[in-house]
Amino acid sequence: MVFLTGIRIAGTGRYVPPLTADNNDFAAFLDTNDEWIRSRTGIVTRHISDGEPSWHMGLEASRQALEAAGIAPEQLGLIIDTTITPDYSTPATACVIQRELGAVNAMAFDVNSACTGFVCGLDMAARYLATDPALSYVLVVSNENLSRVVDYTDRSSCILFGDGAGACVLERRQGLYSAYMAADGTGASSLYANGNRRTCRFATGEHTYPEDTDPRGDFLRQDGKAVYRFATEAMPRAVQQVLDQAGLGTEDIDLLIPHQANLRIIETAAKKLKFPMDKIMVNLEKYGNTSSASIPIALDEAVRSGRLRRGQRVCLVGFGAGLTLGAVLFEY
Ligand code: UT7
C-alpha cells in the first residue's frame, strides 16, 4: 500500500530501566557463557525492569517524544500502545498512559502483533492520519516488560530478551509512505507466551485458580530455529516489497532500522538484500531483544545521535510472533 498522504515524525523518545544484566550475569546461574551469547546473537547486555510496570516505561518514553515534538498532551487525538506484556488484560495500556499524560482529547487502544507491533502501530497511525482530517497528532508507544514472561531456566531464550520502551509522535505530511504488513498464523506455535490461560471456574462455584500442572507453563516458549528461518526470509521480502511499491531501489534507503533480535539475522537479511551494514541501525548489543520496543528505541537513538536526519529516507522492518511481518518506508 502506497499512500499519497505521508507521515512526519514530530518527535521520538525512549526509556530503559536502570538495572542491567550482562552475559556474565547469566553465566552465574545458567550453563552459558559470554562467548556463546555474543557470537550467536551479538547481545552483550540488556536492561531488566525491577518491578517497574510496563505502562510506566511507556509513559517515560512518551513524555520524551511529546517534548521533542514540542506539543502538549491535549493536542494528541490518538494513542496507540503496542505491547505483548501489558500490566492488565484490560484496560488498555494506552488508556493508562492517556490518563497519566493528561491527553484528554485522545482515543486510546492497544495493538498486539508482538515484535512487529511498533511498525503495525505506526502503519495504523498513518492510515488514521490519512483518513481523518480532524486528527493532528498520534502517539505510538511501545513498552515491553519481557522479564515477566521469560523463563530464566531456559538458556536458549532467556539470554535474548530485555525490557524497555520507545515512542514517537506522528503528524500528517504529503510525501512518500509505503507499507507492507503480513501475518502467517500457521507459525503461531513457533513463539508464544500463555500469560492469561489460568481459568477461574466461577460458573461451577470454584472461585479459585487451579494450580498449573506445568509451573512454568505461562512463560515464553520459542522454536528458535523456526523463528530464525522465518526472520531471514521475511525481512528482506518485506523491505523489497515496500521498495517495489514505491518504485525505489535499496540505494534509495538512507537508514534501515530492523527489529533488534539477533545480529546474525540482521546480517543474513542484509546480505540477501545486498544492503550495506553501515546503513543499518544496530544497537542490540546494549538492549537485547525488547520486542515491539526495539525499533522505536533504535529510531530514537538514530534521531538523537544525528544518524537519521530530516529529509532522509528511513525503512523500518519488524518480524515476530504470530508470525507477523511489517515494513514501512518514509521520509524522516
Ligand atoms: O523477536 C523474535 C524473537 N526470537 C528470535 O529472534 C529467535 C531467533 N533464533 C535465534 O536467534 C537462534 O536460533 C538462537 C540464538 C535462539 C539459538 O541459536 P542457534 O545458533 O540456532 O543455536 P541452537 O539452538 O542450534 O543451539 C546450538 C547449541 C545447542 O547445543 P548442542 O545441542 O549443539 O549441544 C544448544 O543447546 O547451543 C546450545 N545452547 C547454548 N549454549 C550456551 C543454546 N542456548 C545456549 C546458551 N549458551 N545460552
Describe, in plain words, how this protein is organized in 3D.
The chain has 332 residues and is of the alpha/beta class. It folds into 2 domains: 5-174, Thiolase/Chalcone synthase (Peroxisomal Thiolase, Chain A, domain 1, 3-Layer(aba) Sandwich); 179-190 and 218-331, Peroxisomal Thiolase, Chain A, domain 1 (3-Layer(aba) Sandwich). The chain is built from 10 helices and 12 strands. It has helices at residues 23-27, 34-41, 54-69, 93-101, 117-131, 155-158, 224-246, 263-273, 284-287, 294-304, and strands at residues 2-15, 20-22, 45-47, 76-82, 107-111, 137-144, 164-183, 191-192, 221-222, 255-258, 313-320, 324-331. The strands form 3 sheets. Strands 1, 4, 5, 6, 7, 10, 11 and 12 form an 8-stranded mixed β-sheet that branches. It has a two-stranded antiparallel sheet with strand order 2-3. Strand 4 (76-82), helix 4 and strand 5 (107-111) form a beta-alpha-beta unit. Helix 7 runs parallel beside helix 8 (263-273). The longest helix is centred in the last third of the chain and has 23 residues, at 224-246. It is globular and about 55 Å long. The model has no long low-confidence stretch (mean pLDDT 93). The chain binds oxa(dethia)-CoA. Residues 32, 36-37, 40-41, 115, 155-156, 159, 222, 224-225, 227-228, 231, 261-262, 289, 320 line the site of oxa(dethia)-CoA. Oxa(dethia)-CoA is lined by residues 32, 36-37, 40-41, 115, 155-156, 159, 222, 224-225, 227-228, 231, 261-262, 289, 320.
